[in-house]
Amino acid sequence: DGGITQSPKYLFRKEGQNVTLSCEQNLNHDAMYWYRQDPGQGLRLIYYSQIVNDFQKGDIAEGYSVSREKKESFPLTVTSAQKNPTAFYLCASSIFRGAGELFFGEGSRLTVL
Amino acid sequence: KNEVEQSPQNLTAQEGEFITINCSYSVGISALHWLQQHPGGGIVSLFMLSSGKKKHGRLIATINIQEKHSSLHITASHPRDSAVYICAAPERENPDRGSTLGRLYFGRGTQLTVWP
User: Fold this and answer.
1) Which of A54, A51, A45, A49 is nearest to A89 (CA)?
2) Quick one: DSSP state of residue A3?
3) What would the pLDDT profile of B81-97 be if each residue is shown by its tens digit?
4) From CA A69, how far away is CA A71, in angstroms rounded?
5) Which end of chain A is less enclosed by CB atoms within 10 A, N or C?
6) Which residues of B3-15 are buried (b: 16+ CB within 10 A; e: fewer)?
7) pLDDT in tens, B24-73
C-alpha cells in the first residue's frame, strides 16, 4: 500500500543534541512537507521540497535542517539551535506543491529532557 | 488575521446527532481540504473539493467558492467520529493565469467529541 512512513513515533532528546526524524513516501510524489504542531495551534510549515535536491524554508525554519537527496525521502534534523523543540512533527506529501490530495505520516513526538 | 478560520473550536454531541463544522478562508484557492486527526496524532485526508458537494459514507463536504466558505457535515454521528477536524486551503498564487501552486493554510482545527 502507498503511503508515508515516519519514524520514530516517539523520541526523547537531551538539550544540546541534534536529532533526525525520518520521512519516507512510496507515492511517487514530488512535493514533501514538514509541519510542527503545538497544543491548541494549527500546523506550521517548517520546510518543504518541490523536487529532488531542492527545498525551501517555511514559516518556522530556524533551528531545523532538511535534505532531499532522493524523491522518496525527506528527513528533518532538529538541531540544538532550536530553542523549543518539544512538539509533534508531521510529514506530508502531495503530487505537486499545493495540488492534489494530501497524505500525512503518523507523526513523531519529540520531547526534550 | 488567519487566512483560514474554523468554527466551532470545540464541539460536543450526543451519538446520532447531525454535526456541522464550518471553514472560511480569505485567500484565492484552487481547492479545499478537509482532514481528520486521530487522537494518536495521525492525519488522514477526508475530502478535497473545488466546487459543489462531495459525500463519503456519513460525511458530506460542501464548498461555496463565491462566499469563500466550506462546511463539513457528519450525519448520525458516532463516538468513533471523535477527532480533530482541520480544513486546509492551498493558495492560488496567480489567479489571473490560473496557477494553482501555492502555500497551504491550515485552520486551527475543531475538536469533536461524540458521547454514546
Assistant:
1) A45
2) -
3) 999 999 998 876 554 54
4) 7
5) N
6) ebebeeeebebee
7) 998 777 789 999 999 888 899 999 998 999 999 999 999 998 899 999 99
Give the best residue of B2, B10, B43 to mutate against chain A (max A CB count within 10 A). Answer: B43
Q: Does A99 touch chain B (CB under 8 A)?
A: yes
Burial A42-76 (b: 16+ CB within 10 A, else e): bbebbbbbbeeeebeebebbeebbbebeebbebbb
Instruction: Quote the radius of gyration of chain B (alpha carbons, Å).
Output: 14
Across the interface, whether the CB atoms of A41 and B30 are under 8 A apart is answered no
Which of A6, A48, A97, A102 has the most B C-beta neighbours within 10 Å, making it the best mutation to test the interface with B?
A102
Which of B:64-103 have CB within 8 Å of A? Answer: 86, 88, 90-91, 93, 100-103
Dist CA B7 CA B23 (whole Å): 7
Nearest Cα to Cα of residue B23 among B58, B73, B57: B73
Strand pairing category for A10-13 and A108-112: parallel
Beta strand segments in A17-83, E: 19-25, 31-37, 44-51, 54-57, 64-66, 76-78
Average pLDDT over residues A18-39: 94
